[in-house]
Amino acid sequence: MAYDKELAAAIKAASLATRLCRKVQKALLQSDVRSKHGRNKSPVTVADYGSQALVSFVLQQEFPGEFSLVAEEDSNDLRKDGGGEIVERITKLVNESLTSDGSYGVSLSSEDILKAIDCGKSEGGSQGRHWVLDPIDGTKGFVRGDQYAVALALLDRGNVVLGVLACPNLPLTSISFAHPHSPNNEVGCLFFAEVGRGTYMQPLDGSSTVKVQVSAVENPEEASFFESYEAAHSMHDLSSLIAQKLGVKAAPIRMDSQVKYGALSRGDGAIYLRFPRNGYREKIWDHAAGSIVVTEAGGVVTDAAGKQLDFSKGKYLDLDTGIIVSNQKLMPLLFDAVRASLAQKSKPQP
Ligand SMILES: Nc1ncnc2c1ncn2[C@@H]1O[C@H](COP(=O)(O)O)[C@@H](OP(=O)(O)O)[C@H]1O
Ligand SMILES: [Mg+2]
Ligand SMILES: [Mg+2]
Ligand SMILES: [Mg+2]
């Protein structure tokens, strides 16, 4: 089909990047974690940079000459004074991962690494093809030892046409809601989806592939919902009000990153609610791969006004208030509960 070569390359690149991430998460050093500059001091680690350099390098090898990448990280902070040691560490990690794969017999220099990272500076848009990468989505979860994902998607004329979500810490079998972090469960899933062809899941370390479908739950009382682990990323009080209006009985499943989209695509829960606080602008790399993984599994992803997400406007998503995800049956009820809850919240308190 149309994007088979791209899909194979994306799976290869994301899988390779997770090897690097797993190694770093196992032995996370304080010096591996840095704060980004600017107002929102989110963390960034050697693994975010290493993953971006690896994916960028692999995609450029596979598609020489026709390459555009919109990615989260850039090398600005690494090029400043004091960045040298950290760049050396990233270079070593990337070269070790490339060697472990065997298909790229090269050793990259520190400058090669910085250049590969900066290849992700494309602005995207509605023309042509653009890869969209979040090298580690859920860096806060990654640093905590929790969930994170390597999220890679391809835009073709503004539409997401394929997505790969590698989730190194997600159990292979459905999350038990009583024990979402059950230690006995084997972990490491990769979800992939191509437009019109469905969503599939495979173990990160293996090859058996299964087709996945969103939950068929129609009764909201039986639905469970996902939201961000970080209260700063999504208003937990608002989602709790929405859940209450719907009659949802289960407690929320709080997890970092687009792993939520992956888990929802295989029916672990039926609803995902995301309501950032005022003024936050969502980026395309935080939703591109996740949204196609869910829609190709039969789900629906919209903003709070019921509009499909528009990935054609550059780096940012232009949204009404928040993002809501569910199956086709539940969506109308969910949408009503969201509108009613937003209206209630915006009323002045007596
Ligand atoms: N104040 C904020 N509100 C909403 N989202 C935020 C935020 N600050 C950071 N984020 C985004 O939330 C993402 C993690 O999503 P989640 O809340 O589902 O775990 C982060 O991705 P990164 O970890 O790639 O930076 C970041 O882009
Ligand atoms: Mg980040
Ligand atoms: Mg992210
Ligand atoms: Mg990230």
By CATH, the topology of the largest domain is: Fructose-1,6-Bisphosphatase, Chain A, domain 1
SS strand fraction: 15-25%
Hetero groups: adenosine-3'-5'-diphosphate, magnesium ion
Q: Helix- and strand-based class?
A: alpha+beta
Order of helices and strands: HEEHEHHEHEEEEEEHEHEHEEH
Helix count equals: 9
Uncertain stretches of 5 or more adjacent residues = none
Keywords: Hydrolase, Magnesium, Metal-binding
Protein name: 3'(2'),5'-bisphosphate nucleotidase
Catalytic activity: adenosine 2',5'-bisphosphate + H2O = AMP + phosphate; adenosine 3',5'-bisphosphate + H2O = AMP + phosphate; 3'-phosphoadenylyl sulfate + H2O = adenosine 5'-phosphosulfate + phosphate
Pfam family, one: Inositol_P
How would you describe this structure to a colleague?
The chain has helices spanning 4-26, 46-62, 84-101, 110-118, 139-144, 236-246, 259-265, 288-295, 331-346, and strands at 33-35, 43-45, 69-71, 129-137, 149-156, 159-171, 187-194, 199-203, 210-212, 225-228, 253-255, 271-274, 299-303, 323-327. Strands 3-4-5-6-7-8-9 form a seven-stranded mixed β-sheet, sandwiched between helices. It has a five-stranded mixed β-sheet with strand order 11-10-12-14-13, with helices on both faces. α1 (4-26) crosses α3 (84-101). It starts with a helix and ends with a helix. The protein folds into two domains: 4-212, Fructose-1,6-Bisphosphatase, subunit A, domain 1 (Fructose-1,6-Bisphosphatase, Chain A, domain 1); 220-346, D-Maltodextrin-Binding Protein, domain 2. It has 350 residues and is α+β, with helices and mostly antiparallel strands. It is 33% helix and 22% strand. β8 (199-203) and β9 form a beta hairpin. The structure holds adenosine-3'-5'-diphosphate and magnesium ion (3 copies). One magnesium ion (MG) is lined by residues 134, 137, 286. Its cofactor is Mg(2+). Converts adenosine 3'-phosphate 5'-phosphosulfate (PAPS) to adenosine 5'-phosphosulfate (APS) and 3'(2')-phosphoadenosine 5'-phosphate (PAP) to AMP. This is 3'(2'),5'-bisphosphate nucleotidase.
